[in-house]
C-alpha cells in the first residue's frame, strides 16, 4: 500500500529521481561493462589456442615462445631444423603437428608459412576449427589464404595479387617482387591472431627465399615458375610447431623428451600454463580496471545519497503531514528506505539495459577493430556484484531515513523550518 | 468501560526543558462527545504544543490525557499512532495537503492509515473515494471535483476545505484544528467555520478549535482561555 504513494511522490520529484537513477545506471553500466570485457577478454585469451598439447620452438623463455608462435609478437632468435620437426611428427605418441614459419610480412601483417595441417587441426575458442568465408585454403606455391582482418583492412578479394615483404614492419624495403602471390581464400573471423595473418605453404616460403643471402636478393637471380618447379622446396628450418598428442596423459613425458632432445636445443611448452603466466603479467591491469569501476559505483551511490539527503529537508513538511494523518515514524522510515531501494534497483536495471544496448551496437565494431569477441552472456559473478550494489544503495537510504525519523520525532505535527 | 468524553485532560503539566517552569498547566479539561470547544490564547502560550500532546506525538508530560477513553500515557508509541489515525482528524494553518496527490486522494489518504475509518467510509458511501467525493461536495468543492483541479491549483480556502474533508472522512470522534482560518479573509473564515461545525455536528464529531482570534469564539459551545504559564503566575 506504500508503493503507490511512493510512486506518486517520486513522480512529483521526477527530476532529482531521474538524476539518481542515471548516476546509478551509468556507474552500474560501467562496472558491469568492465566485468564483461574482462571476462570476455580472458575467455578469448585463454582460447587463442585450444586442443594444442605442446608448442615447440628453439630454446628461449616460455612467454617469448608463446608470444611469437601464437600471438605473432616479437620474433624468434633461432629457428629449428626441419629434421627435428620430422622426427617429432613421426613419433608414435604424436597425433598431429602444425608447423609455423615466420619472418615475412605484408603491409604490417605477418605471413605465416604452414601446411594443410593448420586448416585441419588448428582449434580456437571452445573447440572451433577454422572455416573459410570465401574461397579455399592454399594448396600450391604462390597461393595465399588471408585472415579476416587482413582482407577487411586491405580490401582484398579472391584473385588479387599480393607482394610479400622480406622481414617485418610495413615499410620493409626488400620485397619479394618477382614472386607475387594470388589470394585463393579468406578465412572467417576467429578473434585470434589468425585474423591478422596471411597463410602460405612452407614451400612458398622456401620459394621466395631462393637466391637470397643474408636478407638481400642476389643480383642477377631471377626465379621463374619453370625453374621453381624443378627445385626441391622442402624447407630447411621452421620457427615453431604445435603438437597434438594421441593421449593427453603423455604430455609431460613428451615435454621432457623434447626438452632433452640431443640434436639441437628445443623447448616444449604447455600452452595453458604459458597463457596463465602471461595473463598474470596482465592481471594487475585487470584488477585496476575493476577497482576504478567499483569506485565509480561508490561515487554514484554517494551522489544518490546527496540528492536524497537534500531532498529530505524539503520533504520535512510532507513527513509531518503523513505523521499527523496517522503514519508511524517507522512507516516513514520504511518509505524513505524503500525509495532508495527502488531508485537503486531502477538504476541497476537501466544500467544493464544501457550496457546490453551498447553491446549490441558495438559488438561487431569491437570484434573487427580490436579482435575482441564480446558475448551477450551474463558474466559470472555479476549477480553477486549487483546484489551488493542494491544492498549498498538501500543502506545508503538508511541515512536520509534516519534523518526523516529524527525530523518526525522532533517536529511532531508542526514542521520546524 | 468507556467514558462519555472524547477528550479528557487531568492535572496536565508540560515543559519543553527538564527543569524549566511548566509551559502548559491544565487542571481539568473535558470535551464531551459531539461538542465544540474554542481554545484561545496568545501566541507562544502552548496551544500547538497542547495539540501535539493530545494527538499523541509528544511525550514527557505529567498528568493524564484521555482520548475516547484511552489514556495516552498507557499506550505505546505505535498504539498512539493507531489511535490518532482512528479517532482524530487534524487541520493545520497551512500546508495541509500533499501536492503530488489530487484533492480527492488527499481526502482519501486518511482512510489509508485506519481500517476503522475506511470501513466507516465504505459503509457510508460504498467506497472511500465516493465518501471523499460526498464530503468534498458537501464542503462546496464541486467545482474542484468537476474540473479535476490539481492540488497545487487550489486557493487557500479550497485547500482548507479539502483538509476539513480529510479530517471528517470516516467519522473520527475528534477533530483538532490549529488556526485553520488564519490565512483566510473574514468572509471565507466564517463560512469555513460554519461548514466545519455543521459537518461535525452531523457526524457527532467533537471539535477542538485553536485560535488567537477571540471574535471566533461565538461559533462554539465552550471557550477556554489558555494563558502562558509565565503570564498566569
Ligand atoms: N520543539 C520545541 N522545542 C522547544 N521548544 C518548543 C518546541 N516547540 C515549541 N516550543 C516552544 O513552546 C512554546 C509554545 O509554542 P506553541 O507552538 O505551542 O505556541 P502557540 O500557542 O501555538 O503559538 P502560535 O499562536 O504562535 O501558534 C513556544 O515558546 C515555543 O518556542
Ligand atoms: Mg501554534
Fold and architecture overview:
- The complex is a heterodimer of chains A (417) and B (233).
- Chain A is α+β, with helices and mostly antiparallel strands.
- Chain A folds into two domains: 2-45 and 283-411, no CATH class; 54-269, no CATH class.
- Chain A has 13 helices and 17 strands.
- Chain A has helices at residues 2-12, 14-46, 62-69, 82-89, 116-121, 148-154, 202-208, 225-230, 251-259, 271-314, 316-325, 329-370, 382-411; strands at 54-58, 80-81, 94-106, 109-114, 123-124, 128-129, 132-135, 143-146, 161-162, 165-166, 181-187, 197-201, 212-213, 216-217, 237-238, 240-245, 266-269.
- In chain A, the strands form four sheets. In chain A, strands 1, 3, 4, 7, 8, 9, 10, 11, 12, 16 and 17 form an eleven-stranded mixed β-sheet that branches.
- In chain A, a hairpin with a 2-residue loop joins β13 and β14 (216-217).
- In chain A, α2 crosses α12 (329-370) and α10 runs parallel beside α13 (382-411).
- Chain A is elongated and about 105 Å long.
- The model of chain A has no long low-confidence stretch (mean pLDDT 86).
- Chain B is of the alpha/beta class.
- Chain B has a domain at 34-57 and 86-224: P-loop containing nucleotide triphosphate hydrolases (Rossmann fold), CATH 3.40.50.300.
- Helices cover 39% and strands 22% of the residues of chain B.
- Chain B has helices at 47-54, 77-87, 103-112, 115-125, 128-138, 142-146, 156-168, 186-203, 229-232, and strands spanning 5-14, 24-32, 36-40, 62-67, 70-71, 88-91, 174-178, 206-211, 222-225.
- In chain B, the strands form two sheets. Chain B has a five-stranded parallel β-sheet, sandwiched between helices.
- In chain B, α3 packs across α5, α3 runs parallel beside α7 (156-168) and α7 packs parallel to α8.
- Chain B is globular, with a radius of gyration of 17 Å.
- At the A-B interface, α1 and α11 of A face α1, α2 and α3 of B.
- Bound molecules: adenosine-5'-triphosphate and magnesium ion (MG).
- Residues 47-48, 178 of chain B line the site of magnesium ion.
- Chain A: It holds the Pfam family MacB_PCD.
- Chain A: One of its GO terms (cellular component) is plasma membrane.
- Chain A: Residues 291-406 form the ABC3 transporter permease C-terminal domain.
- Chain A: Keywords: Cell membrane, Membrane, Transmembrane, Transmembrane helix.
- Chain A: The chain crosses the membrane at residues 288-310, 331-356, 376-399.
Amino acid at each position: 500500500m506504500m508503493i503507490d504513494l511512493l510512486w506518486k511522490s517520486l513522480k512529483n520529484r521526477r527530476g532529482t529521481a531521474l538524476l539518481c537513477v542515471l548516476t546509478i545506471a551509468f556507474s552500474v553500466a560501467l562496472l558491469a561493462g568492465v566485468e564483461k570485457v574482462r571476462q570476455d577478454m580472458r575467455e578469448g585469451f585463454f582460447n587463442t589456442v585450444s586442443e594444442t598439447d605442446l608448442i615447440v620452438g628453439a630454446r628461449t623463455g616460455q612467454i617469448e615462445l608463446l608470444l611469437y608462435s601464437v600471438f605473432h609478437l616479437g620474433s624468434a632468435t633461432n629457428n629449428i631444423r626441419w629434421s627435428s620437426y620430422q622426427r617429432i611428427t613421426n613419433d608414435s605418441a604424436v597425433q598431429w603437428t602444425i608447423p609455423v614459419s615466420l619472418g615475412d610480412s605484408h603491409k604490417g601483417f605477418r605471413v605465416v608459412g604452414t601446411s594443410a595441417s593448420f586448416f585441419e587441426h588448428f582449434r580456437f575458442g571452445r573447440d572451433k576449427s577454422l572455416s573459410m568465408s570465401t574461397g579455399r585454403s592454399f594448396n600450391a606455391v604462390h597461393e595465399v589464404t588471408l585472415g579476416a582482418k587482413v582482407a577487411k583492412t586491405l580490401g582484398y578479394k579472391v584473385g588479387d595479387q599480393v607482394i610479400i615483404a622480406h622481414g617485418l614492419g610495413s615499410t620493409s624495403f626488400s620485397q619479394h617482387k618477382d614472386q607475387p602471390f594470388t589470394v585463393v581464400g579468406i578465412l572467417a573471423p576467429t578473434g585470434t591472431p589468425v585474423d591478422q595473418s596471411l597463410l602460405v605453404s612452407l614451400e612458398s616460403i622456401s620459394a621466395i627465399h631462393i637466391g637470397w643471402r643474408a636478407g638481400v636478393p642476389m643480383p642477377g637471380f631471377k626465379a621463374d615458375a619453370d625453374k621453381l618447379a624443378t627445385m626441391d622446396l622442402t624447407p630447411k628450418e621452421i620457427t615453431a610447431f604445435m603438437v597434438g598428442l594421441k593421449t593427453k596423459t603423455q604430455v609431460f613425458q613428451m615435454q621432457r623428451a623434447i626438452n632433452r632432445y640431443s640434436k639441437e636445443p628445443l623447448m616444449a611448452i604447455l600452452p595453458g600454463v604459458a597463457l596463465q603466466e602471461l595473463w598474470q603479467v596482465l592481471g594487475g591491469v585487470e584488477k585496476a580496471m575493476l577497482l576504478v569501476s567499483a569506485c565509480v559505483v561508490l561515487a554514484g551511490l554517494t551522489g544518490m545519497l546527496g540528492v536524497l539527503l537534500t531532498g529530505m529537508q524539503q520533504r520535512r513538511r510532507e513527513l509531518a503531514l503523513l505523521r499527523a494523518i496517522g503514519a508511524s515514524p517507522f512507516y516513514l522510515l520504511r518509505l524513505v528506505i524503500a525509495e532508495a531501494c527502488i531508485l537503486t534497483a531502477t538504476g541497476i536495471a537501466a544500467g544493464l539495459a544501457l550496457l546490453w544496448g551498447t553491446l549490441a551496437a558495438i559488438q561487431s565494431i569491437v570484434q573487427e577493430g580490436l579482435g575482441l569477441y564480446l558475448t551477450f552472456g551474463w558474466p559470472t559473478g555479476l549477480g553477486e556484484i549487483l546484489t551488493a550494489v542494491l544492498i549498498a544503495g538501500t543502506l545508503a537510504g538508511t541515512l536520509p531515513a534516519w534523518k526523516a525519523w529524527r525530523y518526525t520525532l522532533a517536529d511532531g505535527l508542526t514542521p520546524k523550518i | 468501560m468507556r467514558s462519555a468524553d472524547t477528550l479528557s485532560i487531568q492535572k496536565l503539566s508540560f515543559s519543553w526543558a527538564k527543569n524549566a517552569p511548566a509551559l502548559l498547566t491544565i487542571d481539568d479539561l473535558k470535551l464531551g462527545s459531539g461538542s465544540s470547544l474554542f481554545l484561545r490564547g496568545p501566541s507562544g502560550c502552548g496551544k500547538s504544543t497542547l495539540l501535539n500532546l493530545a494527538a499523541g506525538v509528544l511525550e514527557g508530560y505529567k498528568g493524564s490525557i484521555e482520548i475516547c477513553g484511552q489514556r495516552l500515557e498507557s499506550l505505546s508509541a505505535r498504539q498512539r499512532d493507531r489511535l490518532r489515525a482512528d479517532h482524530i482528524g487534524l487541520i493545520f494553518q497551512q500546508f495541509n495537503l500533499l501536492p503530488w496527490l489530487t484533492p480527492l486522494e488527499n481526502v482519501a489518504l486518511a482512510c489509508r492509515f485506519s481500517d476503522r475509518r475506511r470501513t466507516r467510509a465504505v459503509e457510508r458511501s460504498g467506497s472511500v473515494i465516493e465518501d471523499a467525493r460526498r464530503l468534498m461536495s458537501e464542503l462546496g468543492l464541486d467545482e474542484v471535483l468537476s474540473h479535476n483541479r490539481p492540488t497545487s491549483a487550489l486557493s487557500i480556502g479550497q485547500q482548507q476545505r479539502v483538509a476539513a474533508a480529510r479530517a471528517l472522512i470516516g467519522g473520527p470522534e475528534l477533530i483538532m484544528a490549529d488556526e485553520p482560518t488564519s490565512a483566510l479573509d473574514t468572509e471565507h473564515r466564517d463560512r469555513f467555520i460554519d461548514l466545519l461545525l455543521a459537518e461535525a455536528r452531523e457526524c457527532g464529531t467533537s471539535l477542538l478549535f485553536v485560535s488567537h482570534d477571540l471574535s471566533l469564539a461565538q461559533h462554539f459551545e465552550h471557550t477556554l482561555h489558555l494563558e502562558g504559564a509565565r503570564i498566569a503566575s
